[in-house]
Design a protein that fits this description.
about 90 residues; mainly alpha; 3 helices
Length: about 90
C-alpha cells in the first residue's frame, strides 16, 4: 500500500474544527427543540431519529478533538488513526 504524503497548508496549522462543531451543535439544538415541541406518545420514530442525531453529534465532536478541521500534515499518526476510525463510524 502506498504511503500518502501530506504537505503543509499554505495557511499554517489553522483549526476550523470549532466552526464545524458550532454549526453542528446549533443544528442539533434546533432539531431537538422542534422534536420536543412536536412529540406525542406515538412518535417513536422521531425520538429514535433524534437519538441517532445525538449519537452522530457525539462522533463529530470526537472527530473535532482528533483533527477534524485541521490539515492532515499537522496531525500525529495516532490522531490520524483515531480520526479515520471515528470518521468510519460516523
Amino acid at each position: 500500500m502506498k504511503q500518502e504524503i501530506f504537505y503543509p497548508s499554505p495557511n499554517g496549522d489553522e483549526d476550523n474544527g470549532k466552526k464545524y462543531l458550532g454549526a453542528a451543535w446549533a443544528l442539533v439544538i434546533c432539531a431537538t427543540l422542534s422534536t420536543a415541541v412536536r412529540v406525542w406518545w406515538d412518535d417513536y420514530n422521531m425520538i429514535f431519529g433524534q437519538f441517532v442525531n445525538l449519537v452522530g453529534l457525539g462522533l463529530v465532536t470526537a472527530e473535532v478533538f482528533n483533527g477534524l478541521g485541521r490539515h492532515m500534515y499537522y496531525l500525529q499518526p495516532d490522531q490520524q488513526r483515531r480520526f479515520y476510525l471515528i470518521g468510519w463510524l460516523d
